[in-house]
Amino acid sequence: MPSPQPREPEPLQARRLEFTPAEIGALAHLYRGEVYRSTVWRTRLDSSTNWAVVTTGIALSVTYSNTEASPLPLVLVGLLVTVFLLFEARRYRYFNIWRARARLLETDFYAPMIRGEAITPNADWTELLANDYRKPNYHISFPRAVGRRLRRTYGWILAIQALAYYGKLAIHPVPLTTLSEVWERASIGPIPGTLVVLAGVAFHTSWLIFALVTYRMELTRRRERRSLIAMG
Fold this sequence. Notes:
72% helix, mainly alpha
């Protein structure tokens, strides 16, 4: 008997070239939802930033309230601001999910519509967005999130804290006349002033280096992208 001929595979259904009005309406509601969620998480970012600013302001007020006040509050607030930075970096990773989705819809759906171009659902951006909904994940790592918040906000807060601390050592209770007075004023109980100042220099140098390293990570990530359509 002759062997049966293999069945030819059925042709794949051609993908549509345009969204239907119902699908465009659904995408409009989807965009509104993503903007709302990004706004909520943006508010949470502002809350942790406000905590850092307020605590720094309180430390400045206490430290400069009189000439005999200790500079210790400025040392402690530097550690507290670091904790707020870690909190905010975690929140930023969530915020970045909704922000990236909303931004993708703006650049690849609404912008072509406004320009009068055809909106093609088989473009790369639809696959990228669909995969992000199927398998949601963070778009950036925790170190990169810390670096972003550090460069954009917390670096300035920490810089003000450092300047205020060393300014306190320089002018209170009287202006400095010799370098040895710095070590005496910087001492904290049994901890010698030399060790305290060196620890402060190491602390602020470390976050500067971290900001630069994560910035290089950002540049490397951008160069590795094969397409301008990306998230995060």
